[in-house]
């Protein structure tokens, strides 16, 4: 470029051009050679040491993966009968078919589970996310499938980092092998693995992950999840619009036995509720206006494992109660706190993540402590005001028990954030929640003249069973706590007494429009079912057996007395 060939002397000029072309060709050839050398040297660096014990293990593991198994999120089946038997055993022992998981590709494909309407939205968030995944003794393939799904289903520019927190697992696999996998198979992704040096429980483990994260938004996941297409965009976009919105995706079920990614159909889903015993429950969407919406909708509580929150807001709003141990309670604590202290909790219908729901915990807790109970007692004292009475009926031994620890920090936090009362939460966020002793006709034990009481006979949630009769307990035990509600239901929190044509009375789900669930309490103590025109009777009913309805007569067996009756 800086050399000029003389124009007048043709021969000299030609030689000159030739020399210049030659120089250019040599220059580019050398450059290409240098590039090749760089690639080769990078490959050399990449060349894993084949004699490394982790490499040997990983290759053995990788060689057993069955291509395409479980693709499209389908449930899978192992052809090999020995594997199949081992899988069944694992399911019994660990509540998960770990053998099947080990054979299934880590990056299996999933179908788009969303409501088709979701594809019409475009989101262009500018925020980035730190995905925090905590685990204790989860198997490698399950953790890695979670990680792979996040990588594959998230646009690169939105995924700031993935932070894995090992809550001091004792299983060998997740010690060195996971780090080795990340270093060799996923080294171009920003993934950090933090090993805690002693078991901290899932609440403090999440806090440790949050502390080292630097993305705009924190997204927590359990270590046995699979994210689906476009799961992150609507979460980030909503937080960008409303930084105090805390978001949960729809949580689909990955079946523990065959790893099928299953949904309740692409349109129907539930939001979070709670029971007075302090447990999370799924509830139907409460507001009619919210039904069918594809934009974020109000959720009174969250399940706890999968949610997105602005990182700075997470700390401002009080992160977690660090004195909560083990497992449980933190999800309701955070839900109440978010709502009461000015934030919002929402379910995002166009974001869907699968989660393996296990039938039992495959791990034990140090000292066998009831961490769920203790943690819930903590949150009841801090957030539920006088309504904590309804929790402590379930857990009387915990009410003034020193085991729940010091609450000063959390009560101070509540003051500092100037949070609303629990009554405000019930009135404004969850007005449909049944309160067994407020605005009702009568509640408490329902006793007859023979000191026998109505009793749910320990009926399990989601079941139907007889409305029973049992000796009255000397204290108000939950199994004998009944309410005659303002709608005329004779009910517990979850069940309503329903009279049947064969004169049996069963406890079933409450449907307020069902006439057979409507009862009247007369001044003389009879409990009357107007629909069948009969009265509740204990005549001829053995202890622990179901009550009946019968023709109303002036019988001692048809006189009932509630512990508390409101005058109205
Ligand atoms: C649900 C939540 C879970 C948590 C819990 C209440 C969902 C889908 N799951 O229970 O996230 O909020 O309710 O506390 O919402 N783990 C540890 N250390 C431990 C015990 C567990 O790190 O000491 C990990 C575990 O490996 C898993 C996560 O914590 O990744 C949640 O545990 P889980 O899956 O057993 O809880 P889950 O889904 O039954
Ligand atoms: Mn889980």
TrEMBL record:
<keyword id="KW-0735">Signal-anchor</keyword>
<keyword id="KW-0812">Transmembrane</keyword>
<dbReference type="InterPro" id="IPR000772">
    <property type="entry name" value="Ricin_B_lectin"/>
</dbReference>
<keyword id="KW-1015">Disulfide bond</keyword>
<keyword id="KW-0808">Transferase</keyword>
<keyword id="KW-0430">Lectin</keyword>
<dbReference type="Pfam" id="PF00652">
    <property type="entry name" value="Ricin_B_lectin"/>
</dbReference>
<dbReference type="GO" id="GO:0046872">
    <property type="term" value="F:metal ion binding"/>
</dbReference>
<dbReference type="GO" id="GO:0030246">
    <property type="term" value="F:carbohydrate binding"/>
</dbReference>
<protein>
    <recommendedName>
        <fullName>Polypeptide N-acetylgalactosaminyltransferase</fullName>
        <ecNumber>2.4.1.-</ecNumber>
    </recommendedName>
</protein>
<dbReference type="InterPro" id="IPR001173">
    <property type="entry name" value="Glyco_trans_2-like"/>
</dbReference>
<dbReference type="InterPro" id="IPR035992">
    <property type="entry name" value="Ricin_B-like_lectins"/>
</dbReference>
<feature type="transmembrane region" description="Helical">
    <location>
        <begin position="12"/>
        <end position="29"/>
    </location>
</feature>
<dbReference type="GO" id="GO:0000139">
    <property type="term" value="C:Golgi membrane"/>
</dbReference>
<keyword id="KW-0464">Manganese</keyword>
<keyword id="KW-0472">Membrane</keyword>
<keyword id="KW-0328">Glycosyltransferase</keyword>
<dbReference type="InterPro" id="IPR045885">
    <property type="entry name" value="GalNAc-T"/>
</dbReference>
<comment type="pathway">
    <text>Protein modification; protein glycosylation.</text>
</comment>
<dbReference type="GO" id="GO:0004653">
    <property type="term" value="F:polypeptide N-acetylgalactosaminyltransferase activity"/>
</dbReference>
<dbReference type="InterPro" id="IPR029044">
    <property type="entry name" value="Nucleotide-diphossugar_trans"/>
</dbReference>
<comment type="similarity">
    <text>Belongs to the glycosyltransferase 2 family. GalNAc-T subfamily.</text>
</comment>
<keyword id="KW-0333">Golgi apparatus</keyword>
<dbReference type="Pfam" id="PF00535">
    <property type="entry name" value="Glycos_transf_2"/>
</dbReference>
<keyword id="KW-1133">Transmembrane helix</keyword>
<feature type="domain" description="Ricin B lectin">
    <location>
        <begin position="440"/>
        <end position="563"/>
    </location>
</feature>
<dbReference type="GO" id="GO:0006493">
    <property type="term" value="P:protein O-linked glycosylation"/>
</dbReference>
<keyword id="KW-0479">Metal-binding</keyword>
